[in-house]
Amino acid sequence: MSNLRFDVVQDAFKKKAATVQTPKERPSEYFGSLVFNRSNMRKYLDVDTFNQLVECIDKGGSLDLAIADKVAAGMKTWAMEHGVTHVTHWFQPLTEGTAEKHDSFMEYDHKGGMIEAFEGKSLVQQEPDASSFPSGGIRATFEARGYTAWDPTSPVFIEDDTLCIPTVFISYTGEALDYKTPLKKALKAVSDAAVPVCRLFDPKVEKVFSYLGWEQEYFLVDEDLFAARPDLMLTGRTLMGHSSSKNQQLDDHYFGAIPSRVAAFMRDVEIAGYKLGIPLKTRHNEVAPNQFELAPIYGETNLANDQNQMIMNVMTRIARKHGFVVLFHEKPFDGINGSGKHNNWSLGTDTGTQLLAPGKDAKGNLQFVTFFVNVLAAVQKHNALLKASIASATNAHRLGANEAPPAIVSAFLGQTMTDVLRKLLTVPSDTPIEIAGKKGKSVGLVEIPQIFIDNTDRNRTSPFAFTGNRFEFRAVGSSANCASAMTTLNAAVAEQLLDFKVAVDKELAAGKALNVAIMDTLKPIIASIIDTVCFDGNGYSEAWQKEAKRRGLDTETSVPKMFKSFTEKQSVELFTRLGIYSEKELEARNDVKWETYTKKVQIEARMTARMATNHIIPAGLEYQRRLLENVDLMRQNFAGDAEGFQTDWRHRQQGQGDEPGLRESQRHCGHLRAG
Ligand code: ADP
Ligand code: MG
Asked: What is the pLDDT of residues 351-375, one digit of tens each?
């Protein structure tokens, strides 16, 4: 690049790690200190208010305005003790980022002075202008009203001087304009559908939770180097240039020693994250140079997703303190790995049972197999929709590349579970499923070996992999809001569980014993999935593309076409039956997706043209001028032979042809998608 100067690179290299203000207390002591969690609620609310709020959080339902006033008063006192002066409703519009509009606590006291005030009605509901957010035509400017409404299940938190209230964002006419609303509906749907199935095994179950453990990958770039790349600044990725001589060929970055500047950044992020109640657990170098990962302990999906959005904001802010810019783009640089956000997902009951982990006895194992098989059936039926839920203009550069899941949604089970399912097809329906010793025992029985429980095989090429007690949806992009994938997955599973329960009830009505009724319902499902969506082979291979097509899985690779599956009959039925999206909302969302896709590609195209005009051509002309000067000097000083070398074009042609690096850079310069 013409403006990427050596001194900028040197300065970036010389930067030292910033010092981090580490709190005196241990993380466990300041964990959640900036969150209005239950311990803060107890301190700042009277018993009655506390109980009513907790009831509303645990059971759902709306908060009485008189109670909301008391909650707001308690929150205000707590917040002001932390230096808070402003409040905002914090929501997740369809922009893949969060939105906030700050209002100060300041009000006239009508006696000539000012006071700080915060009332229940401002806590519970606000009215931003909905037409300035993507709505897919639901909100025109002349009917712009939209509402944000408090989601009490996700705790209020403090960022700097602002009290942030997590909210849903809906239009005046009730359509969702955000990610949170449909996610919450899908989580309720999966609980409502799973509870009756759980009660076949344990009548005490009242609620089923969906859990999410995200793994956030990201790049860090020195901010001076970042500022030298207009493409990186405006599109989040490099559109021109050539790859570095040394990138990830030596496999020496993954799990390598964390550079001290980066470690200081990570420490700062963790301190901020702990204060916000985010249980950050893992940090490490990823495969590509300057690529890293951060992951928390998994939690309830709605909260875990809010926390992912929160930490992305925190990382963006803190990176600047350390002289970095954080890149969440799925493919900032060509030729090295891109970034994803694996969504580890599972279901669990309010009685503490993990529904996707083997049980303690035959009954527990039957419950596990029931949920396991139904999840796979849901993924099979809606594989195209699931792919659409993670598709975006930016993720398109990562999917299908040789480091990320292919653009076909299949499921990896591992040898053990594949064997268990195949065995179940051959034995009588009342055969118990046992947990065997390390190696497995006799023939005839269906056994899950002990070793499997803490040690499952891995297949990095699978977009949806079973990892022992959960599925890992690996196709989600690093910049995405997990809600899109999580809404679709939980909805698909909910629908499948509803259908399953109806089928089991029929078997029971025919007088079969419970375990036989369940197994007789499961068997045809197993037979239909085992050689269709289940695939343990190499997802990167060309043979799989053909095979997947033969199996009837969706193999579409064009993102705009993938989006269509949101409005296919089967998807509309799924979402409307469960009350998650209306048909109008689905169409609107697709409009937003298409528009965002088009605009992103357009911005990149413009950027490429401008870089060529403003940077590449001037640099080329400048270089040409220097060459001509050089020829002039050669002429002046060495008349005759030497001059020929500089002016004979054939020498230079040959030179370029011999140098693969140069050839490579020429290729990249002409190629929009090379970044
Ligand atoms: P990996 O080895 O896949 O990189 P990580 O440790 O980086 O694993 O991340 C695994 C994530 O999966 C963590 O967030 C972890 O808390 C989460 N996880 C573990 N068990 C479950 C579960 N039952 N349900 C959902 N997420 C889980
Ligand atoms: Mg990981």
From this structure: 999 999 999 999 999 999 999 999 9
Å from CA of 297 to ligand 1 middle: 7
Q: Which of 298, 343, 478, 493 to mutate to test the pocket of ligand 1 (most atoms within 8 A of CB)?
A: 298
Residue 23 lies inside a defined structural domain of this protein? yes
With a 6 A CB cut-off, is 298 part of the ligand 1 pocket?
Answer: yes
Instruction: Report d(CA 268, CA 18) in Å as an integer.
Output: 10
* SS3 letters across 413-468: CCHHHHHHHHHHHHCCCCCCEEEECCCCCCCCCEEEEHHHHHCCCCCCCCCEEECC
Q: Which residues pair with 100 in a beta bridge?
A: 90
Helices 482-509 and 362-381: crossing angle in degrees, nearest 10, is: 120
Centre of ligand 2 from the C-alpha of residue 293, in Å: 7
At 191, the amino acid letter reads: S
Is any ligand 1 atom within 6 A of the Cβ of residue 282? yes
In a domain, 133, yes or no: yes
pLDDT at 150 over 50: yes
Look at residues 177, 212, 242 and tell me which one is the last residue of a structural domain.
Answer: 177
* Ligand 1 pocket, mutate which of 287, 305, 470, 472 (most atoms under 8 A from CB): 470
DSSP assignment of 185-215 = HHHHHHHHHHHHHHHTT-TT---EEEEEEEE
DSSP 8-state symbol, 134: -
| Per-residue pLDDT tens over the stretch 547-587 | 999 999 999 999 999 999 999 999 999 999 999 999 999 99
Residue 646, domain member (yes or no)? yes
- Specify the pLDDT at position 174: 86
Distance between CA atoms of residues 21 and 672, nearest Å: 43
Q: Which residue has the higher pLDDT, 405 or 219?
A: 219
What separation in Å is there between the alpha carbon of 291 and the centre of ligand 2? 12
Domain that holds residue 665: 615-674
Q: Based on the structure, what is the number of domains in the chain?
A: 2
Across the strands, what pairs with 447? 434
Task: For residue 297, give the ligand 1 atom closest to its CA.
Answer: 16
Give yes or no for residue 136 CB within 6 A of ligand 1: no
> CA torsion 466→472→474→475, rounded to 10°?
90
